[in-house]
Inverse folding.
């Protein structure tokens, strides 16, 4: 449920690192908590993101939520398929449900992200509350 | 059980109107309008006889559910019964057949009503001046925040104060209004009692905070007992306090936001003061403020000079108008009728009875449903479906099952800080028999969850349509009817 090659945030985003490019999405736990996602507000390509700023917003049948940028940088790619198929976030959160690719400006920020094992422990704690 | 649309009932040549002969010369000159604006074919409107038209809409209205038909415990929305005397007063010709362009001297009665309504709203909230312009609660929030911004700007602190603090138990529109007004929203968490965590508040408070927005009682239906301490913390940092009046029904006539330390509030006149709502308006989100914010209120303000009521536009520091003309006047008339027919003692009994009714239901349901915050509630309370989850029954299933039993469902999945939340607000007008019937229905559902959960998972069974595929409806909505291909 939590691929080992990804890094994770406390707010349930995942990051796949390839050189200075970071692909960002939401985790299986996040999509499960949100329930059926029915709408996504995507950022603009070329936009500059600061770590922690709002990257996208999500509407689900239960609630509305935001995705925050896990790293700083420029957005170089946006998954516009989500505009018409928000269900990809539920069905394939680590694959076709990716949200955006950020060209990172500060690789050191990656050090603050969690490993799959750390994230799993974090989720277990949160689910237990 | 589905009904044909009015378009599907259409038959060529039928009509439900008869217009008099044209009594001016007919002019079909093509020069009257540019070519692109001239219709080339008739609009495809439904053609139907008068009796079928009346039956169509009467049938539709019978499938509606409103508070005049049954119990409507929608938390945070205060779907109280709207006394019919409000309608009588609003229908008076002097209120109903006037025009906003009429000169002041011909609408003195209307202006007097607005003036006195504003004074009443100030007295009830402990504030000094009011504006009746905002058309709804969130509009009132935005207006209130614009006043706060104008206040800070007038003191040369407009650029410095960029943040608005909103607790996670606030009314859902608060963060949206703050963001819309250009502020950065900072969230503070609730403590175990459901109130604002004072330590978290102290951590985020500083001289860049413009305001704190508080809903008290909050969306858990709980009164924050630390409110005066919260006010002190925010005021000491130079920030102002915004009171969201969505839950005024719990405190009206008992305690006043102005006395708690708030600087501005909005009312949901359409909730607390019983005017019809829930269909998108019209509403009235009147605001009331302390003296420090009064210079910035929207123009015009209704003033009294001697025996004359006037619309005062001479307020140089005003943020300007926030609504065409003067707001939704008809809603003001109904709210005013409600306040004056109940009087001060009656309003206090509204709050007391609303709170008593909510606590009565909560305590009778606690054996069957989990109570995430086990304290006396105010006018509403939150339960959750955590005990029912083991049988595969979610809050949504409970809400759908209530429809089968003849009740409007409560608010579900809100507030967000409680998982599988269900928020119940009975209001003051319901008899003990109605409350008991609702309680029995909820108990029956709790028992069904254990014995035959599938009945709940497939509910509703007795409604015009059964369980709808709301996910597909949200993802791939069909927004208009298309005529069949001929």
């Amino acid at each position: 449920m939590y691929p080992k090659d990804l890094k994770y945030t406390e707010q349930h985003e995942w990051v796949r690192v390839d050189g200075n490019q970071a692909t960002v999405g939401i985790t299986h736990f996040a999509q499960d908590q949100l329930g059926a996602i029915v709408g996504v507000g995507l950022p603009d390509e070329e936009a500059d993101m600061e770590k922690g700023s709002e990257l996208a917003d999500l509407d689900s049948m239960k609630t509305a939520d935001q995705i925050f940028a896990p790293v700083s940088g420029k957005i170089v790619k946006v998954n516009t398929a989500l505009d018409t198929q928000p269900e990809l976030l539920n069905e394939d959160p680590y694959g076709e449900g990716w949200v955006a690719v950020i060209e990172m400006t500060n690789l050191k920020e990656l050090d603050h992200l969690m490993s799959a094992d750390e994230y799993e422990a974090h989720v277990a704690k949160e689910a237990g509350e | 059980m589905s009904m044909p649309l009015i378009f599907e009932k259409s038959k060529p040549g039928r009509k439900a109107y008869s217009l008099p002969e044209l009594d001016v010369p007919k002019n079909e000159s093509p020069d009257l309008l540019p070519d692109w604006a001239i219709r080339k074919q008739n609009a495809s409107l439904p053609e139907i006889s008068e009796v079928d038209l009346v039956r169509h809409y009467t049938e539709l209205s019978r499938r509606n559910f409103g508070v005049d038909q049954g119990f409507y415990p929608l938390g945070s929305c205060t779907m109280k019964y709207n006394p019919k005397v409000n309608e009588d007063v609003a229908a008076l010709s002097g209120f109903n057949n006037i025009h906003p362009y009429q000169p002041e001297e011909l609408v003195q009665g209307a202006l007097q009503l607005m003036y006195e309504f504003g004074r009443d709203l100030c007295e009830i909230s402990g504030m000094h001046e009011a504006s009746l312009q905002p058309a709804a609660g969130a509009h009132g929030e935005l207006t209130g925040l614009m006043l706060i911004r104008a206040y800070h700007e007038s003191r040369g602190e407009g650029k410095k104060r960029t943040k608005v603090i909103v607790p996670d138990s606030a009314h859902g529109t608060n963060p949206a209004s703050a963001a819309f007004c250009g502020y950065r929203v900072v969230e503070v968490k609730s403590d175990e009692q459901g109130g604002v965590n004072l330590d978290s508040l102290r951590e985020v408070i500083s001289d860049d905070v413009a305001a704190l927005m508080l809903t008290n009682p909050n969306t858990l239906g709980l009164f924050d007992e630390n409110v005066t301490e919260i006010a002190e913390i925010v005021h000491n940092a130079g920030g102002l306090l915004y009171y969201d009046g969505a839950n005024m029904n719990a405190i009206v006539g008992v305690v006043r936001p102005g006395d708690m330390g708030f600087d501005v509030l909005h009312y949901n006149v359409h909730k607390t003061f019983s005017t019809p709502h829930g269909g998108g308006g019209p509403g009235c989100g009147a605001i009331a403020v302390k003296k420090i914010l009064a210079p910035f209120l929207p123009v015009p303000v209704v003033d009294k000079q001697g025996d004359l009521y006037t619309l005062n536009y001479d307020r140089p520091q005003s943020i300007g108008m926030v609504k065409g003309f003067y707001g939704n006047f008809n809603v003001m008339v109904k709210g005013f009728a409600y306040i004056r027919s109940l009087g001060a003692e009656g309003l206090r009994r509204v709050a007391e009875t609303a709170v008593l009714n909510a606590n009565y239901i909560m305590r009778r349901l606690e054996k069957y449903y989990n109570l995430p915050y086990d304290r006396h509630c105010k006018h509403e309370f939150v339960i959750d479906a955590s005990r029912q989850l083991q049988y595969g029954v979610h809050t949504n299933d409970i809400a759908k099952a209530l429809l089968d039993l003849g009740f409007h469902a409560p608010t579900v999945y809100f507030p967000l800080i409680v998982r599988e939340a269900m928020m119940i607000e009975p209001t003051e007008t319901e008899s003990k028999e109605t409350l008991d019937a609702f309680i029995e229905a909820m108990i029956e559902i709790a028992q069904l969850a254990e014995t035959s959960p599938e009945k709940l998972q497939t509910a509703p069974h007795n409604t015009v349509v059964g369980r709808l595929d709301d996910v597909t409806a949200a993802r791939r909505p069909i927004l208009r009817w298309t005529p069949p291909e001929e």
